[in-house]
Amino acid sequence: MEYFAHVTSQTAEQVLSELKTSAEGLTAAEAQRRIRTHGPNEIAARAANWFFILQRQFASSFIYLL
Question: What is the pTM of this model?
Answer without folding.
Answer: 0.52
